[in-house]
Amino acid sequence: MTSMAAESVSTILVSCKQTRFHIESPNYRELDIEGLNITVTSGGEGGKSKGKGKSKVSEGTEILNNAKLRLKAGSRYALMGKNGSGKSTLLRAIAEKLIPGIPEKTRVSILQQTNASDSNSDHVLLDASSAAGDGPAVLEDVVDKATAKSELEQDINSLADGVNSPDPFGALRALRKLRHEQMQKRLFVLDKDARLRSGARGLQARKALAEFEKTVAESVALTEQQEDGITPETLETETQEAVDLLAELHLQVEPSRLADIESRAKKILAGLGFTEAYLNRPAHSLSGGWRMRSALATALLQETDILILDEPTNFLDLLGIIWLQRHLESLPDTVPSPPTLILVSHDRDFATSCCTDLLLLKDKDLTYFHGDLATYEAAQSERRQYLTKMKDAQDKQKAHIQQTIQQNMAQGRKADDQNKIRQAKSRQKKLDDRWGLQTSAKGTRFKLNRDMAGFHATARSEIDIPAEERGVNIALPSPGELRFPGALLTLENVSFRYPPPKGTKNPSAPTITDINLSIGMGDRIGILGLNGAGKSTLIRLLVESSRPSTGTLTKHPRLKLGYYSQHAVEGLQTLARAHDPATTGTPDLTALGLLMKEVEGELDEGEVRGMLGSLGLPGRLASDVPILKLSGGQLVRCELARILWKRPHCLVLDEVTTHLDYETVTALREALRDWEGAVVLVSHDRWFMRGAVEGSRDDEGSEGDESEGEEEEGGLRRRIVYRLRAGKLAVLQGGVQEFEDGMEKRVKKLLGD
């Protein structure tokens, strides 16, 4: 079974095994698909092929090879995988039902951060980056998209015009037109079904398509039928059918039902940070971040079987993250048939709290684990140690038995004892064929007929010790010498207010007020606050993108500052588009090409490649893949390389974990914790903040090394977490946990607990 979806730049090819169960007994909230293969080819023609007949293999990037996609109804899965491993491709293949075996009636909703084609798919694609046009207010827009209210009202108006028309044939014609439009939608489904199936079921699907095409042709004839050809009995019957259908549609948009949906929509939007004023704003006037929240609200409001959320915490502050966390956790208790959830998130605390299972995309395969990431990592480590000990013990035992066999063989030949020789050969055969695992995958004693059915070269598998995960290892370069001591950055009584809007003289309220902050070498400064508290304004002052309205900013004369903006990914993409070969006549801009231009001879190509490789952009990925084709996480790595090659003394990082996979987030957390330079970190990722700023070395919370000051080699290192609220900066004595506890209390009020 194969299917294909084409985009302007790539094609997704999907094939899998399929059983009759998938077609005849579907459970719309679960999937069980064997032999799943997904390949992405460049261009829209499916790529080139090698071989003949069934052995054809499309060239391209292979995402999955003979994998098993198994989703249990109502479970919540955290999809984990390295940047560029194909997580977004897999999610799109599920959402667009490119995978044979996903029933057409399955309702799939997907919230994603990147543009995707939605030309002919019937899933609900909620693309937060798409431009919004003119439309209704936010609340009305969310309810409309979640309930298809506009489409229903259009059908009602069409039927009502026919039923209330003085023309006696008005109701009949309106009914036939509506039925024909529904048939066109059904025709698309049958056509897709016929293309996806093969063999006997494919033949049956094509026959069904051919028969339905005849029905559609008859429908066309009915819509064009002249009045004198319609019998009075037909007119009476279809007029009554039109009246009955109109009543049924009215029930679906009944005010009481819509009022309930609108009430739930208000609660969801409030949890995501929308105030009453924002609810009444035109939907098209929202910024990108608020459009993403609106799309997320739509996904949470609508009825669906499979809910896919790709980085839903982007643009959410901690209050919104905790609210979403509690909302997803409560679905089994508040919804009769909760959807099956697939979640992609770089926020480790959020993913751990929301999800019951892990779905790991690794080595072109899917692995499942019931539990959270910390438990999975511990289980993998324990199994590796157990198998290592077992293999060492068996190797010693095997060496001893091998030595005994050789001695018996030598003695038998010397004494010409054929029985001893046969006995030695028999033991050798058993050693060769039946040596290996002594326990099954379930931990029971190994039995050949149960645990290794079928023909095999040997009766048991060798003990295969999983290779220890070589996690990402980020080595931050040591800062350059300052030559003389002193604070790196100092803010004294700094305030900032934006200039008044054009046409007004009244000054705007200050965004930040009386900020006093000193940053020394080795300091770890964390800044927490809700959206709109002034964090971005404070960061712009620190990096001198803005000047204080009052107060002074002092910096060390030899300071090198490395600044990662929360809009860095978009900035890189804009930079790459400016080098479009179609307009500039130059080759595509790659990560290596960009860095080589910027270092201007201070580093050679080997050093630049080494830095890019250490950040996860090795070899041809750095030199051959255009920046515009890199994933979000790979773009973050490229931007970090642009910052780090200068060997800064202070890193100012604004939401640096967005788009990164959990392995890279972990590596960056470890690297920042003990780096010699200073770090100013703005992040809503609690786990990341605890490690990088507070110095926590465990996954249990904020207990660990954190303190306002700690003795380090070479002097005193300060670890301080600040809260920025209403433009004022205050130290959180309880650190990240104090801020989280405050947000938990506010979420309980929002949920009415």
From TrEMBL:
SUPFAM superfamilies, sorted? P-loop containing nucleoside triphosphate hydrolases (SSF52540)
Ranges for domain ABC transporter come to 33-388, 489-728
Where is the stretch described as Disordered? 409-433, 693-714
One GO term in the molecular function aspect is:
ATP binding
Signal peptide residue numbers: none
**Alphabetical list of InterPro entries matching this protein:** AAA+_ATPase, ABC_tran_Xtn, ABC_transporter-like_ATP-bd, ABCF, P-loop_NTPase
Q: What is this protein called?
A: ABC transporter
Q: Which organism is it from?
A: Lasiosphaeria hispida
